[in-house]
Amino acid sequence: MTSSFFPPQRTLMGPGPSDVSPRVLGALSRPTIGHLDPLFVQLMDEIKVLLQYAFQTGNALTLPISAPGSAGMEACFVNLVSPGDTVIVCQNGVFGGRMRENVERCGATAVMVEDNWGEPVSVDKVAAAFAEHPQAKTLAFVHAETSTGVRSDAQALCALAREHGALSIVDAVTSLGGIPLKVDEWGADAVYSGTQKCLSCVPGISPITFSPRAVERIQQRQHKVQSWFLDMQLVMGYWGGDSKRAYHHTAPVNDLYALHESLVMLQEEGLENAFARHLRNHQALVAGLEAMGLSMAVAAAHRLPQLNAVNIPAGVDDAAVRSALLSDFDLEIGAGLGALAGKTWRIGLMGYASNERNVLSCLTALEAVLARQGADIRTGAALNAAAAVFNAG
After folding, report:
1. What is the CB neighbour count within 10 angstroms for residue 81?
2. Annotated binding residue at 105?
3. Taking every annotated instance into account, which residue ranges of this chain make up the domain Aminotransferase class V (predicted)?
């Protein structure tokens, strides 16, 4: 007979999911109520306000999609892109490629702006693409590229889109709650994220927000949205307005309890404090890694503090290191993806997992495993280097 499943207590320092706060796990266990219960509708309204704070927006159409970040991505594309449209898509990692796939599945043409993996999106290349394709109606790019640990200049890219009369679609899956994301100030039109990264929540929900310009395009569509479930004109009937909510789907009630709790925690800490915490822990981790003799894969000016791409030393067995960290230390770090597979590790410091204990534990475990493999590293220096950063802060 199959028995109940009891997972081990891992420390999740990969590209996601990240460690979930005990407060959030506690919220999951609260009694389930109906998704049209007046008290749940009240909770929905609070979640919208809390998401507006996290996104730094007053957008009325701000809500959590009842599915992971990939569904948030698809919701943005299927609602804003129509057959025959031209969309400029920026790719400097895995997730720009997924944007292209969405554009093509909408029957539109993707004009690709490609940059090296490990480098930010080139604003100049995007400007040139708009000059060459003035008919482009949308610009799509990744703010925080999870596969490489690179931050692109979302403010400049959104400004370019507006300058050319185009809407912007922004992947903020790894940035929301970890680095500044100013939707209204930057003029971003459609932004999607995920709960399992810097929000310290369980996977399975995708916060999204649409500007009034984006809502106008949705309302003026000449073709039905190809996804019934993600059609915002239908979803708005459940999540939007002051009138009676129209049934659309059974919301994941307990998951939304968890999201609400995670957003309350973010509000309690304050966005600026959350950003400063992620940055300080990142700086300490980098100091320790470099003292050990490892190098970072991304230039300092463009690094994500919440997702650290580290070059794998020559002669080191990538998979063996990650396996040993998991089996011997219950510590998960991520492998490189795509062009960076076997070349980098991705060490996450996201949300609840971004703390001093995890930084020091990760450095200790990584040093032990690498020394056991005979890697050419400096031992005994990492913790002191990281501690110096913490003591200075």
Report:
1. 28
2. no
3. 41-337
